[in-house]
Amino acid sequence: MTKCIRCQVDVADNHLNCPLCGIKLRESIKDTHVSYPEYPQIAKRKKLLVKVWTFVTISIIVFSLAINALTWKVKPIGWSPILSIAVFYIWFLGQDLYQKFNINLVAKTLWNNYLILTVFFLIVDNVTGYGKWSLNFVIPFLGIATGFIMTLWSVKNKSMWRDDIGYILLILGVNVLPFILFLLKAVDVLWPSIASLLYGVMTVVGIFIFSGRRLLYELQKRFHF
């Protein structure tokens, strides 16, 4: 029932106007406009494109491995692992930027990028005769560049202590690895390993100087000591 404000009588709900005075009681159903949010078709398209991109990437990798294996007797060069890692790297970088870019995941993306490029250059070095250029030069300077970009991003966006401290310490630990490989005689050239080690040490020293208490608090919170 709807009450007419003029006549003060109750009127059945099937009436749009008061039968006594004719005043409009409520809006017509046709006049009522109900707006619904539009369905995000763009998100659906993005998911479809990412799936197509993934399928094409897997197809290229499978066919390259098969062709390389079938033509090995004719041309014994292992080019398919290089192509596979390169295609996978393009897929990883593309889908990460295209599907959903979150500023809080930049450190994780940089870390994954470091790992993929490390594996890629190791495979290229091994396939092309293993001249140890990947261990001597690429990996130390790749670690320095990744750590430097990660630190700059975290300081600029003030996310070092909130999100990125674990990744920063992880990549700084990786910068010690080339020097350990040199001690194990897996690396022939010393100065890139020393540069990587010095970068890691000086960055840790700088973090302690500028925010030692905060770093200790964050480490205690994360590692429970």
Automatic annotation (TrEMBL):
Protein keywords? Membrane, Transmembrane, Transmembrane helix
Checking InterPro entries in the record gives: DUF6320
Bilayer-crossing residues are 48-70, 76-93, 105-123, 135-153, 165-184, 190-212
Q: What is this protein called?
A: Zinc ribbon domain-containing protein
Tell me the organism's taxonomic lineage: Bacteria, Bacillati, Bacillota, Bacilli, Lactobacillales
